[in-house]
Amino acid sequence: MKTNIALIGFMAAGKTAVARQLAQRLDKKLVELDALIEQRAGKTVARIFAEDGETAFREWEIALIKEVAVARNQVIATGGGIVLNTINVDRLRQGGVIVYLEASPTAILKRAQASTAVRPLLAGEDKAGIIEKMLRFRQPYYDRAADIRLDTSAIAVNAVAGRIIELLKQYEDFTP
Question: What is the C-alpha to C-alpha distance for residues 154 and 138, in angstroms, rounded to an integer?
Answer without folding.
Answer: 21
